[in-house]
Design a protein that fits this description.
The chain is of the alpha/beta class and 516 residues long.
Length: 516
Amino acid sequence: MIKNNIKYLVILALGLVACEPEFDNPIEESGNFTSGDADFSAYVALGNSLTAGFADGALYVTGQENSFPNILSKQFAIAGGGEFTQPLMSDNVGGFVEDAVNFPPRLVLAFDADGNPGPARFTGESPSTSISANLGSSFNNMGVPGARVYHLDFAGYATLNPYYGRFAQSPTATVVDEAVAQSPTFFSLWIGNNDILGYATSGGVGQDHNETGNVDPSTYSPAGLDITNNNVFAAAYSGLVAKLAANNTEGVLLNLPDVTSLPFFTTVPNNALVLDATQAASLTGFFQAVAGIVTAQVAGTGVPLEQAQALASQYAIAFNPGPNRFLLKTDVTATNPLGFRQMTEEELLLLTIDSAALAQGYGSVVLTPEVLQILGILQMGGTPTPEQGAMVIAAIDAIEDKDVLDSSELDAIGAARTAYNSTIASLASANGLAFYNVSRDLSQAANGGIPFDGGVITSDFVTGGGFSLDGVHPTPRAHALVTNGILDAIELTYGAKLPRVNPADFGTITVSNEVN
């Protein structure tokens, strides 16, 4: 009963999709460039997947080489910056040899037999990076995919996260202590997204520890599905800054963007239940029948008819020709005994939702011949049996919590991010550190786009140029944008004057049909 408009073909022009990001990006070396009051001779970068260069659902060489810390280090080199090393993966496939289930290869844009494009796992080569081989060296890029704020100072994190285990100096090392051991003269810190992101990408199935009041992160979801308590975040982040900024070491702190503005949450519209006039009338009639069945059931328990009708009226949903919002499963309560409602405008569907299921009635009604027969009885003025009434109600297939962010979950995410960003901004000011409001720029990408020499970066999935095929992590082009924002912040705080990079010199996504 719906038109499956979750396709990319209607918005995809191959001329807008770049191939592999470039490895070599020429830098203008003329001009009076200076480090100002900063010292870039030993730069270390701390953070999570955003710092590591994770993209397209995997960590791979091209993404690492086009991470913002690596791009930034090349600009620093013009004004005294030293060597910048990274714990590179072994290939451009991504994933680990030993565990392709939890660490699969990267995503590429592939086309099916009908010419429809979509993300698919690359199978043109096999992963060659070992999950257990330690690289035996310290690195300037200390970004660890999956890390939360309290992980960076957790002794033993290397035994829990193989990305860190690949380059940790010992099983009991901590990320921040290893960074400080390199005697950095400048650092960047971008951490905290994962303290919200896992909750968001799972549809809010985890716990909000600002609601529970739990301040013991050792008891949080091992899968990273919970929201970190604001006080835990503030204490952990303060501890990181205290260690990194000791001895007046200069650096830059980056705040957190609104994760719900990412393509992972904005690509599938919640009003994609597209109906013609006949379908709209049929679905409206179905829910009028549902309201009638509920009225009879409630009145049968002794509730006055008028009250039973008022309670059941919430299920008499009217549908119109054109786009309509899907139905959302909610808790069963005394005021909502069937446990569903129609989605509101601001609520979000996840990119991972089964679009084929949506086309078959997920989010609305799955009509079987038996249900249609019962509806015919109702249309003829007949009274269905309780069993038949139950079959009609069972045909309602509202969207599960795991596939959606509802209004309360969005409020929890927004409140945590606001608190985290307040902590970050305050610590930057208190320690005299540069501060980059990356949230502002990524918000602009989601609301009209950011122009650059050669085009516009938006957060549109596939075509926008800003986000990779996992719908969460930046493309090399977006990493170039972040680099320029950091350089602006460094110039404002330390007086450094360095050339900006041109985002047009950096790629976006990879097209390949070497997939299963």
